[in-house]
Design brief:
This protein has eight helices and twelve strands. By secondary structure, it is an alpha+beta fold. The strands form three sheets. A five-stranded antiparallel beta sheet has the order 2-1-5-4-3, with helices on one face. β1 and β2 form a beta hairpin. It is rod-shaped, with a radius of gyration of 54 Å. The structure holds adenosine-5'-diphosphate. The site of adenosine-5'-diphosphate has 23 residues, from α7 and α8.
């Protein structure tokens, strides 16, 4: 039963059956042709002799008729004792030969008595049924006989033992089945070899998949044969496994980072409450403890909001509501709201805005501006500048936020859009800075079909450029 479920066995059965059918068909056709040829040749030989004997018998029973070929009639000696006919000298060889092989003839009279026969004729040959008009044929074992009734009511039979030819045919059949069997075996062995080779990647694939399911994510399918369809499938699966592994690793790292970020404010709350509760405190001390707890809770809330935003961006099925947005007032509002913060930090915040329109989610677009301007103020120095530019360029929206702040080291630049990545952990340890801001900005920009780039020089400042598909006014 197991064999009928295996692809290899099914192919083998089908292929073997088909090959057997073709070989058997070919063998039987070849044998039948050989047999028909043999009989046709034998029947022609018998017919030829029948013609000659018939004319002799006719001449014998009608003395007035002349012998065939103009020869004088040769009266058969002792006709009534089943004596042989006397054949013309040039035809005598026709009924001679080794006992088993020679042609024979027998002539019966109308009353059923044998009148003549050749010396090679067997003793007990049954008289054939009367034949009408033309010679008829019959086979008895290895004997083939032709018989014909003359107009005088005599029956003539010519026959010969074709045992040697039959033996020859048996040898031919034996040879055919031997060659056929060898071809069948060769075909089956070749088919088995090819299917084993072709299906080998399948067992590699299932072994690798089983190992991966067991948790061995680094496992890959061995792909030596990259040209075949299965080899290509294995390569594609390897790519998929690699991406799955990278995704899984990212997920594990993300969970670890998120837990780590939550641990700090949680520890603050625990320590503060423990110390406040350990003994009686003054009102001022209680106030300070509560303020610390509040800051930690704010940090946790901001982190949770960021995580929620990322989760929404990650879930592919969730489409955020889009509408036509006028970006200029949106950016202006955010910058105006940020001005007090910039002032407290001694940073000069300015903007140059032109009308720009796009189709997007206003909350998400606000998040982008908020984050970029917030960072430009946060990572700046006393007396520094922040400039926000907005304009339409070649049908797209261009938002540029540049500052004269600390700048980002070249080694960190490629990583600043990664989740939880912070250039200087100590400096950016403020409640709203968990290293998720730029990752979220990038996610939103990409969701809107745009791009974000940064150029930065340490000590001189950074410029973030966001390009989004725009709408014509
Ligand atoms: P965070 O929320 O901690 O600010 P972000 O993802 O927004 O995280 O930024 C990642 C890191 O990139 C920050 O830790 C900071 O070091 C650096 N960074 C972002 N914006 C600027 C900027 N305008 N100037 C200098 N450094 C910046």
């Amino acid at each position: 039963m197991r064999y009928f479920h295996s692809i290899r066995w099914r192919v083998q059965f089908w292929y073997g059956g088909l090959l057997l059918l073709v070989l058997a068909g070919f063998g039987f056709t070849a044998l039948d042709l050989q047999r028909t040829n043999q009989f046709t040749r034998a029947d022609r030989e018998l017919e030829q002799r029948m013609g000659m004997i018939a004319s002799l018998v006719h001449a014998d029973t009608n003395p007035s008729a002349s012998a065939p070929g103009g020869n004088p009639r040769n009266p058969p000696p002792n006709v009534h004792n089943s004596a042989p006919l006397r054949l013309p000298p040039q035809e005598t060889g026709l009924f001679e030969g080794s006992p088993g092989q020679a042609f024979y003839y027998i002539v019966w009279r109308r009353d059923g008595k044998r009148t003549m026969n050749s010396s090679s004729a067997p003793a007990n040959v049954p008289r054939p049924e009367p034949s009408q008009g033309h010679p008829s044929f019959r086979s008895r074992g290895t004997l083939r006989e032709c018989f014909h009734d003359t107009s005088d009511g005599e029956s003539i039979l010519i026959g010969r033992d074709y045992r040697a030819e039959f033996d020859e045919m048996h040898r031919f059949a034996y040879l055919l089945s031997l060659v056929g069997g060898a071809v069948l075996l060769l075909g089956l062995a070749g088919g088995w070899w090819i299917s084993t080779r072709a299906l080998r990647p399948v067992s590699d694939i299932s072994a690798a998949a089983a190992r991966i399911a067991d948790g061995d994510l680094g496992r890959r399918i061995h792909t030596a044969d990259t040209g075949s369809e299965l080899g290509q499938l294995a390569q594609n699966l390897n790519h998929t496994f690699a991406r799955l592994q990278a995704g899984f690793t990212r997920q594990v790292q993300f969970t670890a980072d998120a837990s780590h970020e939550l641990r700090t404010p949680l520890s603050v709350i625990l320590i503060q409450t423990q110390s406040a509760l350990s003994r009686e405190r003054t009102t001022e001390e209680y106030r300070e403890s509560l303020q610390s707890c509040q800051r930690a809770a704010q940090r946790m809330r901001s982190l949770m909001e960021n995580l929620l935003m990322l989760a929404r961006l990650d879930s592919t099925g969730t489409a955020h509501a889009r509408e036509t947005c006028e970006l200029e007032p949106l950016v202006r509002d955010v910058v105006e709201l940020m001005k007090p913060l910039a002032e407290t930090r001694g940073v000069h915040l300015d903007m140059e805005l032109e009308p720009a329109r796009l189709c997007g989610n206003p909350d998400q677009l606000t998040w982008i501006v908020n984050n970029l301007v917030g960072n430009a103020i946060q990572y700046n120095k006393e007396g520094g500048d922040v400039m926000v530019n907005l304009r339409m360029e070649s049908g797209g929206v261009l938002l540029i936020v540049s500052d004269t702040g600390t700048g980002i080291p070249a080694d960190d630049l490629p990583h600043i859009f990664e989740r939880f990545y912070r250039v200087d952990k100590a400096r950016s340890n403020a409640p709203d800075h968990s290293g998720l801001g730029l990752a979220i900005v990038k996610g939103i920009v990409e969701e809107h079909g745009g791009t974000i780039d940064v150029i930065s020089e340490v000590g001189k400042g950074s410029t973030f450029t966001v390009r989004l598909p725009g709408l014509q006014a």
